[in-house]
Each structure stands twice: as C-alpha cells, then as structure tokens.
Design a protein that fits this description.
This protein has 186 residues and is mainly alpha-helical. Helix content is 75%, strand content 0%. The longest helix is centred in the first third of the chain and has 22 residues. The radius of gyration is 17 Å and the shape is globular.
Length: 186
C-alpha cells in the first residue's frame, strides 16, 4: 500500500472534517431521551471476548433497527471496556470498534468523521483484513462528500487487498460498479 496515498487521504479527510465543522458552526450536544440511553448493564465492561462479541451483536442489532442512539451507547461501552482492559485488548478488537464507529458516523450523516475513523484502521493496521474494510468505509465516506473519483480510487484499493472478507469484497465491487455507472452517465 502506498504510504503517500494514505497520508494524502488522511490529510484530505482532516481538511474535509475541518471544513464541515466550520461550515456547520457549533452544534450543541444533544442527550438522547432516557428511553434511548443505554442501561447500566449495557455499559458494564465485558471481561472476555464473549462480552465483546455480545457488544458487537448489540451494535449490529441497533444499526439494523436504525437505533443510532443505542448503537452509540454500545460503541461507548466497548470503548470503555477497551480502555479498562487495554493490556488484554487486541489490536484487532480496537480496529473492529473503529470500523463500527465509521459505520455509525456515516449513518449519522457525519461523513468526514466516518472517513477519519476508517482511515485510522487503514493506517494503524495496514496488513490486516480490517485495512480492506477500512478502505471500503473511507470510500463510502468520500462518496457522501461528493468526491466520486477519490471514492472509486479507494474502492479499487480495497479490492486489491489480499486479505479481505468476501462480504466486504462483494459490497465494494457493487459500490464501485454503481459509482462508475453513475460517473459514466454524466
């Protein structure tokens, strides 16, 4: 993977995040209603991989249901758990939650933040299966930022990864095909 490409991508995402943050102005922190806040049991730190798997399952269920507040609560619980068990936590676990953060931020419409979270995985874990998925989420973020050529480039880079889950490869191929069709129709 070309380091120059990575740093250019990170710099572009940082600039986009800064631009969007300044354009939008300060946003007040919104606290979800009590019914949407995670319960005490959802924020307790898991002590083993079984707990992490349970949190990941809860996160996926919340995203599937469109309950972004619950997904954010589960992500927060996972981050707390990682911080508390840093010595025991694997890089793979941290990467998995960064990818979840990218997915959540995209669902919230915060494309620049999503791209940053995804590229964090690519930079910190360049030779893992997660790097390919990080490239996929970064490409999705670029699409949302109306940067189709860069998104297509990232999808191609994703598809070049040797270690890439079949489901991610399939999504990247479909997204790239749709993007190329959209660009060709202009």
């Amino acid at each position: 993977m070309n380091n120059r490409f990575l740093w250019m991508g990170i710099a572009t995402l940082v600039m986009a995040a800064t631009t969007f943050a300044h354009a939008a102005g300060p946003t007040p922190a919104k606290r979800p209603p009590a019914s949407k806040r995670p319960t005490k049991t959802a924020t307790s730190a898991p002590t083993a991989a079984k707990g992490t798997a349970a949190l990941l399952k809860k996160f996926r269920a919340a995203m599937t249901d469109g309950d972004l507040a619950k997904a954010a609560g589960v992500l927060s619980a996972a981050r707390t758990s990682l911080a508390e068990t840093r010595a025991k936590a694997s890089d793979e676990e941290a990467g998995r939650w960064n990818l979840c953060e990218a997915e959540l931020e995209l669902a919230r419409g915060r494309s620049a933040k999503a791209g940053l979270a995804a590229m964090r995985v690519v930079v910190q874990r360049p030779r893992t299966e997660q790097a390919g998925e990080g490239l996929y989420w970064a490409a999705r973020a670029y699409e949302k930022l109306q940067r189709s050529p860069k998104a297509a480039e990232l999808y191609r880079e994703c598809l070049e990864q040797k270690r890439l889950a079949a489901s991610v490869r399939k999504r990247a191929q479909a997204s790239l095909a749709a993007l190329e069709k959209k660009v060709d129709s202009r």
